[in-house]
């Protein structure tokens, strides 16, 4: 089936049924035979962000199958102001979070590394950072691999960017095409928005959101000395 020859509305409908990684893989398959699959902007953004990190959904499906009767299913998400860039470029700094309260995600650690699209990477275990040597992306994976309920970050300033005289950041849940912008008035715990201030503890609250059909309660993310707690 050649999606390029379908009405754009039909093609959009097909693409909307696919997960971000499946969209990315479909786009790669089309490119491999000299064709181009046209995505809506939101579909393209989410596909690009996840596709540059993962080649398959093995780890993501394992995480989302963890059952917590009290807190609900863990939800993989990417955090960082670089998600706001248009178009998305791979030379970014992002944090991978999952909101796992059971601690069971630690048993899927090896599956996480095997799911990375680039196997040419350098893992800084001390700082929980993966450096993808080809794309230039740096991914903080402290919470998924340590499952301590909080994660030490070397430089949380990398998750923010300047917004007027303040700062902002963003989050993208897996299965949700939207990039959720976190404005300055949603960021607390920072005395000032200088580099020094951002190096201290800061709290980023995110309003209720339905992600992949699962209603999630309002969460707080603590970044600074730590990236902790529920995730964006």
Main sheet attributes: strand count, strand direction, barrel closure: 8 strands, mixed
Number of distinct beta strands: 14
Q: Number of helical runs?
A: 7
What share of residues is helical? Answer: 10-25%
Q: How many separate domains?
A: 2
Query: Structural class of the helix and strand makeup?
Result: alpha+beta
Low-pLDDT stretches are: 191-202, 204-232
Oligomer: single chain
Indicate the radius of gyration in whole angstroms. Answer: 18 Å
- Taken as a percent bin, the fraction of beta residues is 15-25%
Q: Span between N and C termini?
A: 38 Å
Q: H/E order of the elements?
A: HHHHEEHEEEHEEEEHEEEEE
Write down the overall geometry: globular
Averaging pLDDT over every residue, what do you get?
Answer: 74
Describe the model.
The protein has seven helices and 14 strands. The strands form four sheets. Strands 1, 2, 3, 4, 5, 7, 8 and 9 form an eight-stranded mixed sheet that branches. It folds into two domains: 3-51, no CATH class; 58-228, no CATH class. It is 25% helix and 24% strand. It is an alpha+beta fold. It is globular and about 45 Å long. A hairpin with a 6-residue loop joins β8 and β9.
Quick structural overview:
25% of the residues lie in helices and 24% in strands. It is of the alpha+beta class. The longest helix is centred in the N-terminal third of the chain and has 13 residues.
What secondary-structure arrangement, pairings included, does this model have?
Layout: H1 8-16, H2 20-32, H3 41-51, H4 58-64, E1 77-79, E2 93-97, H5 109-115, E3 121-124, E4 129-132, E5 138-140, H6 142-146, E6 150-152, E7 161-163, E8 166-173, E9 180-182, H7 195-199, E10 202-206, E11 209-211, E12 214-216, E13 219-223, E14 226-228
Parallel strand pairs: 2-5
Antiparallel strand pairs: 1-2, 1-8, 3-4, 4-5, 6-14, 7-8, 8-9, 10-13, 11-12
Helix pairs in contact: 2-3
